[in-house]
Amino acid sequence: MLTIHVADASPEAAVVVDGAQLAAVGPYEALAAGHPRARVRRWPGILTPGLLNPYGPELLEQAYHPDPREADRLGTEPIFGERGLALLGANPSARGASARRGVQRMLAHGTVAVAGELRGRAALDAVRGAGLALAGRPSGLPGPASFSPVPLVLLPALAAGKPARFAVFDVPDRAALVRDGASTCVATVVGGRLVYRGR
């Protein structure tokens, strides 16, 4: 079944998803007229190609992402440094579980591609399992590892025939996305599947 995704603040950048591919990209009215039987998903904000997070190794192999059941003891934010590495080595399943939680947090921030050389199987499996693309790391990383890195790295424009991989942010325009950051994400689609929905 075809699905049209359109965001209120960017109706000129709607997409038609057919399985794992983009069947069409363009103004919502034209896409709706050309695909009258398609299901329509409406979102607040702007539809974008999604983000590249350049901190794959730092976030998925060098940080521990606490399980929600550990929040009272460890908090909810990633734990870096010696403490994080100790938690990752605590038991055989810790690395895989932490990497999967880290990937979920990336998806919740509109990440559709990860950069940096991932060396461990746990992180690679988590990234591949979620369908995230692997990309080259930009030169000159500006700051500490973050789910909302500064500056944000948007992927190239969406096009028909390309993978259905994009994110929607509840902001009025790209300037607001840069200002307010990736935590404004309301939806992430990877491989044609809605893998994160904020509301």
Number of strands: 11
Strand content: 25-35%
Q: Order of helices and strands, N to C?
A: EEEHEEEHHHHEHEEHEE
The dominant shape is elongated
Q: Largest sheet, described in full? A: 4 strands, mixed
- Class per helix and strand makeup: alpha/beta
Query: Which radius of gyration do the C-alpha atoms yield?
Result: 17 Å
User: Average pLDDT across residues?
Assistant: 95
- Low-pLDDT sequence parts: none
What strand order characterises the main sheet? 3-2-1-4
**Which percent range fits the helix content?**
25-40%
Terminal CA distance reads 23 Å
Count of runs of 4 or more consecutive helical residues: 7
Keywords for this entry:
199 residues; alpha/beta; four-stranded mixed beta sheet; four-stranded antiparallel beta sheet; 7 helices; 11 strands; 28% helix; 25% strand; elongated
Written description of the protein model:
There is one protein chain. Helix 5 (94-107) runs parallel beside helix 6. A hairpin with a 6-residue loop joins strand 1 and strand 2. The protein has 199 residues and is an alpha/beta fold. The mean pLDDT is 95. It has seven helices and eleven strands. The protein is elongated and about 55 Å long. The strands form three sheets. A four-stranded mixed beta sheet has the order 3-2-1-4, with helices on one face. A four-stranded antiparallel beta sheet has the order 5-9-10-11, with no helix packed on it. It has a three-stranded parallel beta sheet with strand order 6-7-8, with no helix packed on it. The longest helix is centred in the middle third of the chain and has 14 residues, at 94-107.
